[in-house]
Design brief:
By secondary structure, the chain is α/β, with parallel strands linked by helices. It is built from 14 helices and twelve strands. Helix 2 runs parallel beside helix 11, helix 3 runs parallel beside helix 4 and helix 5 packs across helix 6. The N and C termini lie far apart (100 Å).
């Protein structure tokens, strides 16, 4: 019995020594021979985080949809806000002093890409930001605004997408002339301090003149003046019109209300305003416009493309868009001819 107990004790002692040796190996990081074990090898590189700065002149449905479409395109390409994307969003609230300050702040940052939404914001960032790639969106005429000097080969660090095709204004005015024969004068609420609004107003006037229709302007300098300007057109205009004018679009609810009260047909230059209550436009979805610019951003951020080599684009798929509820509110009889002028009736005839 004594011999058996001694044998058991000997076996247990050996086992404890073995466990202790294993524990020492794990703690010291050395092999049994005393050589350091190799460090674990990294299996993947750390994920790159992108920094994108956005300057937007004011918040309203069209510009907001542009920004949302832009970010959606990045997300679909695996660049996701809150994961590997940091977005510095800046709203100038329609103030030019704020607009310049925002551009200066962005210029001093280390952004991988800058987006200017609307003409004033794009102009400011182009003037201030010299190192980072710049894209613009919701700009009516990038040439006249001196944002780029060539649409096919922009050069420098700037490219983007214009939100207007001159044909859109002409088509809308042709629609007015063909379908509303009682309209002899069109009243335009306009901020002539916005180059985009001035350019589109000129195109509209030229198109209306061909049909013997007169354009009457009611100028504003800020959004708070929009309602009064629209009221000044009552009795002087048979229809209302607004362009891609950020100041006016921001106060468009007052024009819609007046058009409904006075039964005055109201035409706009963007789909979002038609969805809110204008009767008709020739246009497109601003979300899609922003998505297109977002795809350009992906080319720059992930594929190493230079803005200088990316052609400035314009909307190509134009269509007449009608709001039937707005038509009823504004005393417009929607004819089959009007509906037949819409190419995609399912999407662009708003019930």
């Amino acid at each position: 019995m004594i011999k058996k107990k001694a044998l058991v004790t000997l076996v247990l002692s050996a086992a404890l020594m073995t466990v202790a040796g294993c524990g020492q190996k794990a703690d010291s990081g050395k092999t049994a021979g005393g050589t350091a074990s190799p460090a674990p090898v990294a299996t993947a590189n750390a994920q790159k985080t992108y920094k994108v700065a956005i300057s937007q002149i004011v918040e309203h449905p069209s510009l907001d949809a542009t920004r949302q479409g832009f970010l959606a395109a990045l997300k679909d390409a695996g660049i996701v806000e809150g994961s590997n994307l940091k977005v510095d969003f800046n709203n100038a609230q329609g103030d030019q002093t704020n607009n310049l300050s925002i551009a200066q702040k962005i210029a001093s940052s280390d952004s991988d890409l800058v987006l200017g939404i609307a003409t004033p914001s794009a102009q400011a960032v182009v003037q201030q930001v010299k190192k980072a790639p710049i894209l613009f969106a919701a700009v009516t005429d990038p040439l006249a605004a001196k944002i780029v000097s060539n649409l096919d080969k922009p050069g420098g660090n700037v490219s983007g997408a214009s939100d207007t095709n001159p044909a859109a204004v002409a088509q809308l005015m042709d629609f007015v002339a063909a379908n509303l024969p009682k309209v002899k004068t069109v009243g335009l609420v306009i901020n002539e301090g916005e180059p985009n609004a001035v350019i589109m107003a000129k195109n509209a006037e030229e198109s209306l003149t061909k049909h013997g229709i007169k354009l009457v302007k009611a100028p504003v300098t800020n959004t708070s003046e929009v309602k009064q300007a629209a009221q000044s057109l009552v009795g002087r205009a048979d229809a209302f019109l607004i362009t891609l004018d950020n100041t006016v679009v921001s106060g468009v609810d007052s024009i819609i209300q007046l058009a409904n009260e006075k039964h005055i047909p109201f035409f706009s230059s963007d789909r979002d305003t038609v969805e809110k209550g204008a009767f008709a436009t020739v246009g497109f979805k601003y979300y899609d416009h922003g998505y297109q610019v977002g795809q350009m951003a992906v080319e720059i951020l992930k594929n190493g493309k230079k803005p200088a080599d990316l052609k400035v684009t314009v909307p190509e798929k134009l269509d007449l868009i009608l709001n039937l509820k707005a038509a009823k509110a504004q005393g417009i009889e929607v004819t089959d001819a009007m509906k037949n002028a819409v190419k995609d009736k399912e999407k662009n005839i708003i019930q």
